[in-house]
Amino acid sequence: MGARTVSLVGSTGSIGTQAAEVVNAQPDRFTVVALAALRSVDRLVAQARALRPELVVIADPSLARQVAAGVPKGTEVLAGPEGLVAAGAAGEVVVNGVVGFAGLPVTLAALEAGRRLALANKESLIAAAPVVQRARQTPGAEIVPVDSEHCAIHQCLAAAGSSDGDTSAVKRLLVTASGGPFRGRTLSELAEVTVEDALHHPTWQMGPKITVDCSTLMNKGLEVLEARELFGIEVDRIEVVVHPQSVVHSMVETVDGATMAQLSRPDMRLAIGYAMGWPERINTPFGAIDWSAPMELTFEPPDRKVFACLDLAYRAARQGGAAPAWLNAANEVAVAAFLARELSWPGIAQVVAGALDACTDGPMSSVDDVLEADRQARRWAERAVAQRTVAA
Q1: Considering the entire predicted model, what is its pTM?
Q2: Strands 142-145 and 170-177, sheet pairing
Q3: Are 133 and 157 part of one and the same domain?
Q4: What is the pLDDT of residues 8-21, one digit of tens each?
Q5: Residue 212 confidence (pLDDT) above 80
């Protein structure tokens, strides 16, 4: 069997660069045929020179000429949304590492082309669940998750004999959380935390948006919603457990009382390699544990009063309809405002809660419906942030 072709969308970000490392570690298993980035010209050109893909895409059309001038001769260069869609359908495996709702077109392009989608972009799956689920019915289409938690659940379900969609033997899913940089703090202690404080994650190295989501536990809330969509298990059978060491990446409890867990050192390349290689495993031991060394594993419930975003995600799941799209859009706006120092850390949850209160339900059966819900939620959240800024 020849090397599996891979498209890396969001190739210059955290997931994309680590996916490239997996490819370099397994050159006989994977060949990159497409690279796509939003605006990072220098990184994209450097990747193109190293990996020699057939297609290179830059999302910002104004930067296309710079990219074309730097990539190897003969490389096709595309730009704009159409280029991202082309990259999304280019490889046998499409790694979607685009951050936020902007990853939706890539998700749909990969699935509608009948590709394996190695999904790191949870927001597109959550906000557009009905549309994505239809695209998953395309012959050949499949999603293998790259988030470490969902990758762990995927492995545990396979071990429990439930990887074919039959979850009758599953009692609950246990999604682990490190607790982020603010574990153990009170609301009063968090009133004045800075952007730098929130970006100082204790165990993972990730992009700023995801790292802030980890600090609020919104990332766990989004992962609960993602798990529901990926594995077809209702949210009341999905629980979050704080595990500061980030060694147990998630667990599956079966109806007979057994619990399956996937353990490894924190290394996203393990999950990326698993998603790219499934059902076979790659032979580079990313994240291997030294079992001869002492190790302590601890677990505790999350502080739902302090980390209100977690319950907001459960609320959106139970509310259904447009609520998950509103949750996601309002959170993206609030996190961007926090990173721009226009909103306090507690203000993130307050803006998202207000958005869910204001959520207007409507049909979510088409991409246009999803985009309209996203637009409405963003407008509401932007006004809410502006009002808070003026009041301050």
Answers
A1: 0.91
A2: unpaired
A3: no
A4: 999 999 999 999 99
A5: yes
